[in-house]
């Protein structure tokens, strides 16, 4: 067991009453940590993880900027790429999330942002999300 890498977290409480001691080393108690690519928090609030996932998806979109700008690649191919590479990053471990309405709206907004970027629709243009979906 690597004492330097070992941490504890109490679910439902930000702090613990007593520290865990292994040998002469005190194990640090944390409020959040990343485990298998997902952010876990002491209060099981998924909003931070969703914010993190949206940022990672935007980063994935940025890596494909040459593809989005290309006129030789069809819209269908671009949609396949965004669904495969970007949305899989966005929705990683989503089955473990507890969604609030605000979280759902942020995820839908991120999805629309990706579609609008591919279709070169700027935010200033007055096109509703329903028009983009159809």
The Rg value, from CA coordinates, equals: 20 Å
What is the CA–CA distance across the termini? 55 Å
Helix content: 40-55%
Order of helices and strands: EEEEEHHHHH
Number of E strands: 5
Class from helix and strand fractions: alpha+beta
Overview features:
two-stranded antiparallel sheet; 3-stranded mixed beta sheet; elongated; alpha+beta
Q: Gist?
A:
The protein has 134 residues and is of the alpha+beta class. The protein has helices at 47-63, 65-69, 75-90, 101-118, 129-133; strands at residues 7-8, 20-22, 25-29, 32-35, 38-41.
Write the layout of secondary structure elements.
Blueprint: E1 7-8, E2 20-22, E3 25-29, E4 32-35, E5 38-41, H1 47-63, H2 65-69, H3 75-90, H4 101-118, H5 129-133
Parallel strand pairs: 1-3
Antiparallel strand pairs: 2-3, 4-5
Helix pairs in contact: 1-3, 1-4, 3-4
Model description:
The protein is α+β, with helices and mostly antiparallel strands and 134 residues long. The chain has a domain at 44-133. 46% of the residues lie in helices and 13% in strands. The chain is built from five helices and five strands. Strand 4 (32-35) and strand 5 form a beta hairpin. The radius of gyration is 20 Å and the shape is elongated.
């Amino acid at each position: 067991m690597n004492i330097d890498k070992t941490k504890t977290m109490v679910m439902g409480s930000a702090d613990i009453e007593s520290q865990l001691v292994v040998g002469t080393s005190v194990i640090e108690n944390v409020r959040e940590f990343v485990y298998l690519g997902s952010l876990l928090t002491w209060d099981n609030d998924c909003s931070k993880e969703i914010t993190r996932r949206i940022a990672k998806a935007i980063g994935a979109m940025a890596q494909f900027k040459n593809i989005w700008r290309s006129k030789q690649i069809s819209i269908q191919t671009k949609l396949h790429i965004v669904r495969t590479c970007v949305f899989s990053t966005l929705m990683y471990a989503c089955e473990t999330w507890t969604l609030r309405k605000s979280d759902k709206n942020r995820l839908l907004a991120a999805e629309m942002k990706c579609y609008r970027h591919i279709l070169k629709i700027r935010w200033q243009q007055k096109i509703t999300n329903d028009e983009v979906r159809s």
